[in-house]
User: Fold this.
Amino acid sequence: MPVYETLDRRSFDEGLEACQTLRPKTSDTVRIALIGGFLPRRCGIATFTADIHASLAVAAPEIAVDVYAMAPAAVPTIFDPVVRGVITEGDAGSFVEAARQIEASCAEIVWLQHEFGLFGGLAGDMILELVDRVSAPLIVTLHTVLAEPDADQRRVMERLAARAAKLVVMSERSHDLLRSVYHADDDQIAMIAHGVPDRPFGRASQFKPQFSFAGKQVALTFGLLSPGKGIEAVIEALPAIIEDHPDFLYCIAGATHPNLLAHEGEAYRDRLQALAVSLGVDAHVRWINAFMETDDLLDLLEAADIYVTPYTGAQQSTSGTLSYAMALGKAVISTPYVHAVELLADDHGVLVPFNDSEAIANEIRYLLGDSDRLLTLQRRAYDRGRDMIWPVFAERTCALIAESRVVPKAAPIPERIGIEGFLRICDDTGILQHSVHMIPDRAHGYCVDDNARALMLMHRLDDDALGKCGQLTPVFAAFVQHAWNPDRGEFRNFMGFARNWLEDVGSEDSCGRTLWALGATGRDARDPGLRQWAHELFERTAASALEFQSPRAIAFAMLGADFVLAARPAHDLANRILRSGADRLIALYQAAARPDWRWFEPVLAYDNGRVSEAMLRAGVRLERADVIACGVDTLRWINDVQISPHGHYRPVGSDSFGRAYELPRPFDQQPLEIWAAIDAASAAYDVTGDDIWLAHARRAYEWFTGYNDRGVIVGDPLTGTSKDGINPRGLNLNEGAESVLAYQHATYAIRDFVRKVG
Assistant:
């Protein structure tokens, strides 16, 4: 009995069943992860997030909302029961754990409420620890968009813009800044006004007694108390107002901002109160030093006649209390910060200069002295608020969620694949490395990596495709031959468009990949002369593989050697490469592996499946059970970490490279991994005979057809071209040689695999 038939076949049957059933269920339920502050935390973001949760529960019960609440590090908080996860400000581990929870929940949308001071780190960059690890489309509501960000603020915003499917803003000014300052795409930005409650108009007299305001004309400012609110300017305006309206009362409601309170206690409030005393107006100022629950706040707003927002700076992107005041029909007097300028345009309120007490006094006196003008502004504000009430907000939000949601769908393996996309990037020198969209990019020239893979492709094309491009076979072979640098005993890799070599020696990986192509050509080329050429060049160049240190370079050379041995079983150099490579990879595995990390290195990189495939091929040819077992074990592990919770294939992307003992991040995914996964699964099937490996290979190939994290079609069977991969926002629209070749090879490989299994 062959040695490999004694292998432990644990969980293969279970794995096959799971693989066959892991498909997205058709369901009307959409699960979203909502990240922000949450009650009972006392801040505007917490209230806003809680209001989102409540409005969606009423308007869209088919949306399941999991709340992940931001918690301040220094203040223990017991959140409402609806909170599924808690993220501690400044604690990187809690952001990583929340990302793990979100992934495990199969959330289809991640919706983040962003404010720089909410998360910890430089400009709140701790949130990137989470968003870089979640695969679902990301919607970010930006509560602050700065016109002049510092370096860290810009870095965070640009990362969020690159990661987000949608950026939600509440003002046109923020929309413009996202485009001009942060270079966000216009179709990425959505404008949804701050949600507001829906209450009847004109009930101030009904609510005044509740706050002992009966018989008073009342102006209100509400919010967490801090110097930037500009309350000094209103207090300084009071003597002039009271002179004309002695029954006037200015109500200042809201607790001191927690950060200010921690830094200096109530010193700021004490200074404001002392100012009122010094001006002789303290009897006309009502202080409510408390964080008010929403219903109490709304009652207080209803009791007021005028709402004042005297902020000292123009950069305030949004003000929830301003939106609330308008929705409840209050005449608004405000300084011209961004949100106020837009909401109060067209005579929906009154704007006054920053820090101008006289202007504030004049406008309040004017409104209180003209009841018709006061009522007109109140009605205008109320009417504008109808477009912001929570049911309207929920309707627009649901449309945004539906637009952003991804439903991966697999398509059948194509019966044939075109060759036109491949031909587009070839010329009489070889295959060009890169494209800008579909146009070949001559600026980056050629590389031996791609020309070696192109040479391999020539041996597996069907007759129709070969008839269209078979004349390129000697072109690719000539490129490989010319890449050899006999003076250095290595292959060169990069060549400029002018046919000038850009280096004397390429990387180990490019040299190993070239030996792999020579081995494949020596076995599979249709022309006997080409097979002989490949064997001779392999013989002359392959000794360098015995010194390779890169696991992938070792694996590529082993695969090439296995091809050589298939044609010439007694080939001594190929035998040495195979044996030495197997021993070195086992040693690397033993040094790096842990119970939860069954891999050859402490990091992941590209072409991961090739290393396991090389061990499987070598183990069979050398009849070494230990090598086969290592190949099977590592391939199972790398397959497991490349399957999303939804069940589709998620290849290790470049965002994951070089991160020691860290499981893969979702992006940027590239076609090369698909080809490697299929070939490795085919090798595992040859060893075990288990159909689970065909299921794995099919799932990997379906990544090209739309069964992926963004539900996008990556490969085009009509032209045989492929996009360069999947990033957080969808497709990388370029069509480089590596991607096109990977798609071509993967298509032929999966067909061969299916035929082999029968």
User: Anything to note?
Assistant: DSSP finds 29 helices and 22 strands in the chain. The first strand starts at residue 30 and ends at 36.
